[in-house]
Amino acid sequence: MFHTMVGRARASTSDIAVLIEPDLILFPDFIDVLGYSHLIQDDWLLVAMSRNVPSFPFHQQLPEGPWLIKSNNVVETEEVHAYVSQHGQWTACKGGQLWAWNTGKVPLHAGVMPPFVYEQGQHNEWLLNEALTSGYRFVFDATEAFSLIYPQDIPKTVQVTQTEEVDKYEYQEWGFAVNAHLARHYGSYFFRPANFSNLPVKLFKCGGPKSKKFCFWDHFKHLSYCFPPELLLIAEGQGAGFAGMQAAEDSYITSFRRYVLGKTWKYFPIQPHLLGARRNLPFWKNFVSGFRMSSNRRSTCLQDNFTVGAELDCPVSRVKEPLPLNSHLASPFSLESLLSRVANSDKVVVLAVVGNSYRDMLMSWVCRLKWLKLSNLILSAVDDDIYEFAILQGLPVFKSGPSMNLSFNDCHFGTECFQTVTKVKSRTVLQILQLGYHVLLSDVDVYWFKDPTRELMSFGPGTLVAQTDEYNLTEALNVPRRLNSGFYFAWSNNATIAAFERIVKHAATSHMSEQPSFYDVLCGVGGKYRVGTTLCVEPLTNLTVHFLDREKYPNGAYKTLWENENVAEVCKRQGCVILHNNWISGRKKKLARQIASGLWDYDDRGRMCVKSWHSSGQIHLF
Fold first, then answer.
1. 430 or 259: which carries more pLDDT confidence?
2. What is the CB-side half-sphere exposure of residue 453 using CA atoms within 13 A?
């Protein structure tokens, strides 16, 4: 997700953070631009667009080695620059982009960046617009100041089938629709006045490729300002010099006007008379006149360095009309297509069946699985709200069936809402088993310390392994109706499928949740199919049910683990693989308990997973 990439870059401890698309080639003259930008004694944001080069004949054998042509002859950098200048093409609003900024506490823009799907459109234009309209930083376009190219003829190392190409196209169409939806609902991108433009001030190089002289060009004022690198500019706070002029502007002021015209500047060591200062002019007019380039010099320099089409301006009209959105978003993938894409090499998927009331716990659960490097998760949505929410988060999701009208705060254990939702779980698992995939079902209130997949599979295809809900240390794990249907592993085989068909049929006629149906079918009414203290053997299919060790797979009441001051440390010593946040009534209480324990991995304000680079205090309730 693009917002997570930006968040990670913003957390950098270096003086400057750079975010660049991976397929772009960056030339050494970028360092000169960074050095120049670093002299700006204000918070700044640099953006640059790449130039597309259809046939790029050069390569490097080492990252810092010389440029070579196909015959492996060494080529001077100037020749590479000349080739790019001659053959490079600008594609407005579609080129690859680079971002750079000075780090610190000042945000790039106001508000929250939505979870854009990376490289699926809108996110670069959205960020530029929000940075300009927020006015927190001096924003400038450095496209013309250094070399940044995208070689379009990079060979593909992986061959894909026609079906995969179709899936890729469908994914891109879906990604573009998601990003357009997010851009429309966050920030001011789709609500700009007609006379507002995305054009920030330009930074350009004057004097050829090897020159280190840079100038700013104000598109609106048609003025150039050339600040030599040896001049250190220090902002002395907001000045009144141009306040009256700014107030008179009819349209949005640009970042450049805020930066140059909205502050009083002091420069040294150059004296005012060296800038041609006149005694009858105020200081700020002497300053500006001293750094304005003459019209002749400006024309020559602009003509030598500006390229037609190298514009970042993407008016609303270009993106608002071509992307009509339906009132509801939909994933382009069927369940079968999703399963084939997300299942691991053993054809195992991690399934969560979830409603909108648990969207917060869903995201923390997803973040935790991602931290464990699990990518085979799939979500079954029981209502339209959570379905659209999951799509906007870029998660693999499908609908369980017709959307349910669920209570937001009254769908916990024992409620009619809870009974209805749990029965969806067994039906969904059966559907996936029948398609040939093994299922590790986990409720989203189950916290994972480790990936349990290998251990659960080690019991073998003839065994269904499940968590026990029994917490009494003196009781057996398999006592009546203590099979927890919120965490189990089921194989896709004839015996398991037959057992699930009976569970679904039993639950359909029950006035309780699916959990008693699991036990009564697999272990018999009253536990008549129990074997020892940890097993049941269902006689019709000969399917064995193994109740998992409570030390490693504890439920929410076992040893009152959730009441410890440091739950994670206690569980680590005990050897927990998971910890179920059940045996507590009410969504709010469950949520508060898990967040207070520290076993929480999602920042709802930033719309991203909590990482080690996050600052403290970023966890918030919805």
1. 430
2. 20
- Parallel/antiparallel/unpaired status of strands 201-205 and 214-218: antiparallel
Query: Do 233 and 113 touch, CB atoms closer than 8 A?
Result: no
Please, are residues 499 and 545 in contact by the beta-carbon 8 Å criterion?
A: no
Smallest CA-to-CA distance from 387 within 353, 432, 364 is with 353
Contact between residue 380 and residue 353 where contact means Cβ atoms under 8 Å apart: yes
Measured CA to CA, the distance from residue 434 to residue 176 in angstroms comes to 33
Phi and psi, residue 136, nearest 5°: -75, -25
pLDDT value for 581: 97
Cβ(508)–Cβ(430) under 8 Å? no
The single residue listed with the structure tokens 């259809």 is: 54
Q: Which residues contact 510 (CB under 8 A, 6 or more apart)?
A: 516, 517
Burial class (CB in 10 A: 0-12, 13-18, 19+), 165: exposed
List of residues 6+ apart from 102 with CB closer than 8 A: 15, 16, 37, 38, 40, 43, 44
Whether the link from the prior residue into 324 is cis, omega within 30° of 0, is no
The DSSP code for 548 is P
Can you read off the two tokens belonging to residue 427? 């039906």
Dihedrals phi, psi of 415, to nearest 5 degrees? -85, 160
What lies within 8 Å, CB to CB, of 474 at 6+ separation is none
pLDDT digit string, tens, across residues 580-605:
999 998 889 999 999 999 999 998 87
List, in sequence order, every residue forming a beta bridge with 20; answer none if it has no partner: 98
Across 103-195, where does the E strand assignment appear?
138-141, 148-151
Residue 506 has which token pair?
A: 């039993």
Strand partners, 602: 609
Distance CA 163, CA 617 (A): 46
pLDDT band at 49; cut points 50, 70, 90: confident
Report the amino acid identity of residue 40.
Answer: I
Q: Radius of gyration (Cα) for the chain, nearest Å?
A: 31
Q: How far apart are CA 3 and CA 427, in angstroms?
A: 36
Give the Cα separation of 438 and 69 in Å (integer).
51
**Cα(300)–Cα(303) distance, integer angstroms:** 5
Catalogue the E-assigned strands of 287-426. 348-354, 377-381, 397-399
Query: Which tokens go with 186?
Result: 């966050």
93: left (phi over 0), alpha (psi -120 to 50) or beta: left
In the chain, how many H helices and how many E strands? 19, 27
Q: Check if the beta carbon of residue 468 is closer than 8 Å to that of residue 483.
A: yes
Q: What are phi and psi for residue 496, nearest 5 degrees?
A: -65, -40
